[in-house]
């Protein structure tokens, strides 16, 4: 296959947009240590500027996702104008109910009506922000759960969650969506209130058409067949977004495609198979990563290139040949067809693809030669933390 594909096979790549998380550009670390870096953004404007640099060199990343309150600014209309002047749009608004004392025992699930209302009000505030930023999606990930058996009534928490989500959903504008993100552990360890895709699905299904599931690739137990979940959610019309990253152990938030490019390929094969690819598919491709020891901007450049590279390989899958082998029950031939696509080296074709669009053939090298990193390291003193990890 490698010698046979043409650049036309990759035309569909033009329809790929990847959303960058604003927090990828801030200082971050683990619970052991945050390693501050020179030149990190001091405010959301500078985060948008860094994201725009990633887009300028790759043509892949015209959207920046924000986290509230990490990215609270007085004038979101000004932030939007700033982004648009740089050729960027503001994307998903991520809520945050995981850093306040009030939410120690839960937020949207809390047994105290006042705390629940505080968490609901935070989401109303996020929806107000969405109105100003022009964002389509409100993403909700909850740290809610318990650490000890018996600590709280698991069933009651589900009922309260359903009720809180319904209030938030009702507040959305007609063109806005709610995406509910699941995670099987952490920071709660005995039980988590939205631990898996099935629970997320049950809630968004009850809410309505504009409520969908977000799949964060780092939020599964080791060995989970994530592409199966992708296929199932697409089949049910309920996959709204990805949070891409990669993991060796848990929610590592490392560069997507770094730990297991084959898994990323398999996920993208199912995305394309299920109609989840492209600007009209309704599935957003967001990154949810932190760059703890590597530089942030090249870390994001490498990430979007990894997604593009595996997408290109998935687009090359000979689906007719695969279908025939599957129909014939030819197990090894079917596996061969899939592996052929995976093993195809698309890097030279992607370099050409970029050059033909006026982009640098090698965006990593272009960034190293750009002078931007040196400039921000000189200009920006006292950069902000991504939001956690201290
Ligand atoms: C939680 C999570 C969620 C948050 C982000 C910062 O682990 O994946 O998406 O918003 O990290
Ligand atoms: Mn996430
Ligand atoms: Mn996570």
Automatic annotation (TrEMBL):
Gene3D superfamilies named among the record's database cross-references: Divalent-metal-dependent TIM barrel enzymes (3.20.20.150)
GO function term, MF aspect, one: isomerase activity
Cited Pfam families: AP_endonuc_2
Domain of life: Bacteria
Residue ranges annotated for the Xylose isomerase-like TIM barrel domain, each copy included: 74-247
UniProt keyword annotation of Metal-binding present: yes
Annotated keywords: Carbohydrate metabolism, Isomerase, Manganese, Metal-binding
NCBIfam families assigned: RhaI_grampos
Protein name: L-rhamnose isomerase
Organism: Leifsonella bigeumensis
